[in-house]
Design goal:
By secondary structure, this protein is α+β, with helices and mostly antiparallel strands. Among the domains are: 52 residues, no CATH class; 62 residues, 2-Layer Sandwich (Alpha-Beta Plaits). Strand 14 and strand 15 form a beta hairpin. Helix 5 packs antiparallel against helix 23, helix 8 packs across helix 19 and helix 21 runs antiparallel to helix 22. This is Aspartate/alanine antiporter. Pfam families: Asp-Al_Ex (PF06826), TrkA_C (PF02080).
């Protein structure tokens, strides 16, 4: 058996793929309504790595793998969540970030109390704290703070500064796996307690796939209404695509079927036209409008009544077509500024992004991979396809140049040293830097001719591959340390206290954000995952919700959480050592 494991240990890439495959298999196993999802990859990695280490063949050479996976994951989240992040900051984002500061400080105070109560070794306990909060940069910050404590009893008891610097890793390895599991357990528990329906939450938050319909309305309102003013008048957003004036049709009121539909309609199709925001809706017109059910009901009540004349059926001059957006020149620019209808007679009525349909507005910005429904003259459909791109093949590719430039900028930002009180240095690292740059570039969309965003499907693919690489790589790296630590009976206290810290902190976050801030539970899970700066719990939250609410919460608090935990972890180790805790 040892020889077989030894052979596999020499094939780290093969082992990595096995961990990923088994992890996804385990993650799909459901116990009731609970499943680990992508987070199972981490635990499979820990188990396989521990087995290999037990046979004397630790898995090597995977550090760069999980760093690369983490970088890809956070950067693509930033690109996708940039606009939502800055919108959130203008609403409840500031309050959420203040909450994060309070919770991190409170957890540090709780840790000091537990260390004093159970007489735990302070340096290992500081590592336990960073593991409970699942934050590797904070662990590095604790180790970096130890040389300044060389004359303390705790460091001297370890034998040397070098020996002392290995102790935080022990505490981290013990509490990190349970930290992930405790957060997921809290997510599942409060999801049951609060009777969460993620689909209903997504609908209320406006991120669900709400059906879009088309309706023909006979205008009976006496006063004329400008199309440009219609949405503000009805309090909903609709788009008027076709108009037929009263002199262009004739219905015989004596030839109606049992449902009231006209059996004979005389229409001068040449007078039907594509609507423009400059047009005025007048009594007697028939208009074709697109929107949600509620929006169409409001428009019908305001304008008149349902018309049984289907304008699309009788329209012989204009065409309707779904077109893929693959031309980067139209991406990231407001539709109103593009002026497609004004310049080319092309009206976009719907935008489909992923699985979500949206009614187009002048403020809508197209993204690569969007599918739009256009109404234009039949002879103009080819030009519409040319302007928007309509190349499915090009959507299967990404602009590697801009993608690599964005990640490079993120990694450089992550390496910027920021001095902090006490002589330490703060770095956002390969997670914080790419996330912040991704958020900024995602919000910008484009800079001149450079389009920063990538097609929606490509973003999801890279994001999932990145999180899987990260979880498999870090699990394979940490399994050996975890095995050594967990076989020590004294480690049970560290594991238990770390698990309690994680569970309580996660629970407080969920309750306060969901009940106090009145935000969706999906967002609350994202905030909790952001508090722990933990991609595994974010992956679990995304699996549960199947929408972008967790990503919004995660990206809103992640930068602040990263900074605060790094600073607090260093202050914590200094306080515990100088207070003589554990002695």
């Amino acid at each position: 058996m040892s020889a077989v494991i030894g052979w596999f240990a020499e094939q780290p890439l093969l082992v990595l793929m096995i961990i990923m495959a088994l992890g996804f298999f385990v993650g799909r196993i459901r116990i009731g309504s609970f499943s680990l999802g992508v987070a199972a990859v981490l635990f499979v990695g820990l188990i396989i790595s521990a087995i290999f280490t037990n046979y004397g063949h630790p898995i090597q050479q995977l550090h760069i793998v999980w760093v690369m996976g983490l970088t890809l994951f956070v950067y693509t989240i930033g690109l996708a969540s940039g606009s939502a992040f800055f919108r959130a900051l203008r609403t409840k984002g500031l309050g959420l970030n203040l909450l994060i500061i309070v919770l991190v400080l409170s957890s540090a105070g709780f840790t000091i109390g537990m260390v004093a109560l159970f007489k735990m070794e302070p340096i290992i306990s500081a590592g336990m704290y960073t593991g409970a909060l699942t934050n590797t940069p904070a662990l590095a910050a604790v180790s970096n703070a130890l040389p300044s404590l060389a004359d303390s009893a705790a460091v001297k008891a370890a034998g040397s500064v070098d020996a002392a610097q290995s102790l935080p890793t022990v505490g981290y390895a013990l509490s990190y796996p349970l930290g992930v599991l405790a957060s997921i357990a809290a997510f599942a528990l409060f999801q049951k307690v609060f009777h969460i329906n993620h689909q209903e939450e997504a609908v209320r938050a406006g991120v669900a796939a709400v059906p879009i319909f088309t309706r023909n309305i006979l205008v009976t309102r006496d006063d004329a209404t400008r199309i440009a003013d219609l949405n503000s008048r009805i309090g909903h957003h609709i788009i008027v695509s076709r108009m037929l004036t009263p002199d262009a049709y004739e219905i015989d009121p004596h030839l109606l079927d049992e449902k009231g539909y006209p059996e004979e309609v005389s229409i001068d199709a040449g007078k039907m036209r594509i609507a423009s925001v400059r047009d005025v809706i007048e009594k007697g017109m028939i208009v074709c409008v697109t929107g949600t059910q509620d929006a169409l009901d409001a428009a019908t009540e305001f304008l008149g009544e349902d018309s049984h004349v289907d304008l699309a059926y009788y329209d012989v001059t204009s065409g309707l077509r779904r077109i893929f957006v693959s031309n980067p020149n139209v991406v990231g620019v407001k539709l109103g500024k593009l002026g497609l209808q004004r310049k080319h007679g092309i009206l976009i009525t719907r935008i489909r992004r992923g699985d979500i349909d949206m009614v187009a507005t002048d403020d809508s910005r197209l993204e690569l991979g969007d599918r739009v429904r256009v109404v234009t003259s039949k002879e103009n459909l080819t030009q519409a396809a040319r302007i928007l791109g309509d190349s499915y093949k090009s959507l299967s590719e990404i602009d590697v140049l801009t993608f690599a430039v964005g990640i490079t900028l993120g990694l450089l930002v992550g390496k910027i040293p920021v001095p902090i009180p006490g002589g330490g240095v703060l770095e956002l690292g390969s997670a914080g830097g790419p996330l912040i740059v991704g958020l900024i570039l995602g919000a910008l969309g484009r800079t001149g001719p450079i389009v920063w965003r990538i097609p929606y499907s490509s973003n999801l693919t890279i994001r999932q591959f990145g999180i899987t690489l990260f979880l498999a790589g870090i699990g394979a790296n940490a399994g050996g340390d975890f095995l050594k630590a967990v076989t020590n009976p004294a480690s049970l206290t560290v594991i238990a206290v770390g698990g309690v810290i994680t569970f309580l902190l996660t629970s407080l976050t969920l309750v306060i954000v969901y009940k106090g801030f009145k935000l969706p539970y999906g967002t609350a899970m994202g905030v909790a995952a952001g508090l722990f700066t933990q991609p595994a719990t974010l992956g679990y939250a995304n699996d549960q919700t199947n929408n972008d609410l967790p990503n919004t919460g995660y990206s809103t608090v992640y930068p602040m959480s990263m900074i605060v935990k790094i600073v607090v972890a260093q202050v914590l180790i200094i306080l515990m050592v100088k207070m003589g805790l554990g002695a």
